[in-house]
Amino acid sequence: MLEIDAISKTFTVDRKAVPVLDRVSLSVAENEFLSIVGTSGCGKSTLLNILAGLEDASDGTVRIDGRPIRGPGRDRGVVFQGYSLFEWMTVEGNIRFALEKSDLPAAEKSERVAHFIAAVGLRGFERAYPAQLSGGMRQRVAIARALVYRPRILLMDEPFGALDAQTRGMMQELLLQVWEDHKVTVIFITHDVDEALFLSDRVVVLAARPGRIRREIDVPLPRPRAFDIVTEAPFMALKREILTEIRAETLRAMGQEAGA
Ligand SMILES: Nc1ncnc2c1ncn2[C@@H]1O[C@H](COP(=O)(O)OP(=O)(O)OP(=O)(O)O)[C@@H](O)[C@H]1O
What we know:
Belongs to the ABC transporter superfamily. This protein has helices at residues 44-52, 91-97, 106-119, 135-147, 165-182, 193-199, 233-259; strands spanning 2-13, 16-28, 33-38, 59-64, 67-68, 76-79, 153-157, 185-189, 202-206, 213-218. By secondary structure, the protein is α/β, with parallel strands linked by helices.
């Protein structure tokens, strides 16, 4: 459904070309949950921004159902690590804002907003302001806001990176529930291999600078997944495999830096 075809990206820094992504190609199936991991600076966020249409690729094409994307679109919802909520709007106001340009009837907008507030477990907090919410609750608002116009693809860049371990675990379970209930395709960027494995159908390891696909690893662990899956042997074997790939890339990147 989502086709990433030979995407390259080069930034210009001090008039020097800095290649960040090098011919990244990936096919993502409808309803797939795909995570992207890789050493720091390998271009994960840049790739996500290109998929979101917030950044242009230097080369290559992103297609959804065969049509190349041009800029941001309602077929994609985005959740970043930072809680990019409007502080002066209530929970309800923040989520409703995403529907501002939609021509849905007002009653249907209200219904959708209420539905997604319930889906992320925020019933009772409709009139709260972001400053009155915990980090986990703020990210739940961000998820509801990204889903309320029913995008087919949810793009998430380290959405739980700033949360404590306990809250993070709860948010992962909540996200899987929302994903299962709403049949959305998810591309999820994370540093955390446990998180990637727990959530995903497939994990893509990017090579260090410039980012290329180093490995694609299927995660054939049964669903629904419970939190204690992380201590089971098949999970640990996959984790070892991914950590080995990332470590090799990190060492390679450090070698490049030392040699530069
Ligand atoms: N607008 C920009 N101009 C110049 N260089 C940039 C720009 N955005 C990103 N870069 C560089 O591109 C590289 C990849 O950055 P990116 O944020 O995509 O990596 P990442 O894998 O998400 O990193 P991390 O895991 O540390 O968040 C970095 O070296 C970064 O400095």
